[in-house]
Amino acid sequence: MAAGRSEITPMNIYRKGINNRMAFRCFFRTVCLFWLLQFATVRSDITDGNTEHLKREHSLVKPYQGVGTSPSSQWDFSGSTLVTSQYVRLTPDDRSKEGSIWNTVPCFLKDWEMHVQFKVHGSGKKNLHGDGIGIWYTKERLHPGPVYGSIATFHGLAVVIDTYPNDETSDRSFPFISAMVSNGTVPYDHGKDGRSSELGGCSAEIRNKDHDTYLAIRYSRGRLTVMVDVDDKNEWKECIDIGGVRLPTGYYFGASAATGDLSDNHDIISMKMYQLMVEHTEEEENLDWTKIEPSVSLLKSPKDNIDDPTGNFRGTPLTGWKVFLLLLCALLGIVVCAVVGAVVFQKRQERNKRFY
Fold first, then answer.
1. Whole-angstrom Cα distance, residue 106 to residue 249?
2. Rounded to 5 degrees, what angle do the CA atoms 45, 156, 248 make?
3. What is the Cα Rg of the chain in Å?
4. Residue 197 neighbours by CB distance under 10 Å
5. Across the beta sheet with 75-79, what order do the strands follow?
6. What are the residues facing 246 on neighbouring strands?
7. Half-sphere exposure of residue 202, counting CA atoms within 13 Å on the CB side?
8. Which of 175, 158, 254 lies closest to 213, judged by CA?
9. Among 21, 43, 235, 241, which one has the highest count of C-beta atoms within 10 angstroms of its own C-beta?
């Protein structure tokens, strides 16, 4: 036997097998731990409702104290809105109604998340109901108009739950949830269901549900995310996720709804506002956020959505989940190649050693 080479015995081969299995188990546990940590990070993107960060001055909850027209009220309402101990009904299931409820306290949070529990229900059958609900963060408040009970030209953010297709050429499925940011120059085109100015959206079955239905709107570090929980699974599903959004502070939160020739009950159960604890650069902290003009930096125009039957904005950047999955697949591919290469190399070495 050549000098310097270890003797090949069954025991040595067995020990090498044990070492390979231990190395694989160690790698497998590391990957699992990495996955769990990443999963926990992603799920924490949407707050679990920590009351420590609940901003009561911007929240509407049962039994709706502080709602009214008195100077100390934090919420004001108009139109057909009916406030009960269990819900705030923006419109009844009657034709040609519109109502709204607005926070009277301007919001000066840079990073926030709004959870809306709502209920849309009525006697109308498929496509024989309408019109929908608008959730607003705008400069204007208590201005009735043609867009779900509010004005079509506004400054700020609108997230719309549209239950009736006004555009007969549309091939998307309704109800449809979409978002729009405006600086007061581009109106919401109600006749086209807002498609020319929307940032993205998704279909969601939200009518006549026996369980609770929720919408979450998150704005943080220039990113707008809209999530829904409407399937009674107690989990959020992404609807819209887009970066490059600029929203000022000092605007008002509100909700409105309207009916036309068709109708529905449009109820708000709660609106809970959470402050997100996010660190900003010194330059961002010194910026006067009240003077920011609402805008969105897009690689493509929102009008590109007109050709997209899904309604999803095709220029939306990769989300955290997608980036993580791509990196995980690449990592697993590299590791598999390395393991296969190592096994092949080891077998060749063992085969060569038999000649000594």
1. 8
2. 70
3. 27
4. 21
5. 75-79, 98-103, 252-258, 132-138, 155-162, 176-183, 200-203
6. 295
7. 15
8. 175
9. 241
Answer whether 0.70 is exceeded by the pTM: yes
Give residue 161's identity as a one-letter amino acid code: I
- What is the distance, to the nearest Å, from the Cα of residue 97 to the centroid of all Cα atoms in its chain? 29
Judge whether 115 and 274 are in contact, CB under 8 Å. Answer: yes
Helices 10-43, 320-353: crossing angle, 10 deg rounding: 180
Give CA–CA dist 217/224, Å, rounded.
7
74 φ/ψ sector (left φ>0, alpha ψ -120 to 50, else beta): alpha
Residues comprising the chain, all counted: 356
Name 83's Cβ contacts closer than 8 Å, sequence gap at least 6.
Answer: 64, 67, 77, 89, 101
* Other CB atoms within 10 A of residue 148 CB: 30
Measured between alpha carbons, how far is 273 from 57 in angstroms, rounded to an integer? 9
Residues 92-141 have pLDDT tens digits of 999 999 999 999 999 999 999 999 999 999 998 777 888 999 999 999 99
Instruction: Please state which CATH number belongs to domain 54-108+118-213+251-274.
Output: 2.60.120.200
Tokens of 236: 């959020």
Distances (CA, A) of 258 to 76, 129, 146, 148, 181: 17, 11, 8, 5, 20
The helix/strand/coil state of 121 is strand
In Å, how far are 218, 250, 318 from 247, measured between CA atoms?
Answer: 12, 10, 21
* Structure confidence by residue, pLDDT tens digits, 188-204: 998 899 998 999 999 99
